[in-house]
Amino acid sequence: MEERGVAPNVVCFTTLIDIFCKEGNFVEAKRVIQEMERKGERPNTVTYNALIDGYIKKGKMKEAHKLKKEMEDKGLMPDTYTYSSLIHGECIDGKVDEALKLFHEMYRRDLTRNIVTYTAMISGLSKDGRTDEAFKLYDEMKREGLTPDDRVYHSLVGSLHTAKS
């Protein structure tokens, strides 16, 4: 791009990072961050979300949490997307209590919990056999004005089936 007189900006760099993360090439993704900073572009929350989401999709939760801390240390605030990704990853790993801590941290930070956040949490609780807690979150989600989708209902029905067995 630069050869053609186009200086990459934060959007271009973040797109590259996202591509490398989807390929599982975290070395290159981190190199892009370094190059970005060297060129005077500051990574933003979206940049970190691309990295965090990439690590989570490859099952690297420890690294994802380190990146959340790194972004906070740099003065960037994790957003709903950041937390929803981390909650989803913790639930996939079977660490539902860790996911609940993040879920409650969102409330303390006054972040909106959206359908993705609730779906991840309800699914995690359901798979963990915590049917009552899953239904409490379902009720809370509806009180918040969110419309449950097929994934929510699938998780709740599965939870009831597991509890019955």
Features:
single chain, 165 residues, mainly alpha, Serine Threonine Protein Phosphatase 5, Tetratricopeptide repeat, 2 domains, elongated
Structure description:
There is one protein chain. The chain has 165 residues and is mainly α. It is built from 9 helices and no strands. Helix 7 (115-127) runs antiparallel to helix 8. The longest helix is centred in the C-terminal third of the chain and has 15 residues, at 150-164. The protein starts with 9 loop residues before the first helix and ends with a helix.
Beta content comes to under 5%
Q: What is the number of E strands? A: 0
Q: Which percent bin holds the helix content?
A: over 70%
CATH topology of the largest domain: Serine Threonine Protein Phosphatase 5, Tetratricopeptide repeat
Q: Mind sketching the topology for me?
A:
Layout: H1 10-22, H2 26-38, H3 45-57, H4 61-73, H5 80-92, H6 96-108, H7 115-127, H8 131-143, H9 150-164
Helix pairs in contact: 1-2, 1-3, 3-4, 3-5, 4-5, 5-6, 5-7, 6-7, 7-8, 7-9, 8-9
Short recap of the structure:
This protein has helices at 10-22, 26-38, 45-57, 61-73, 80-92, 96-108, 115-127, 131-143, 150-164.
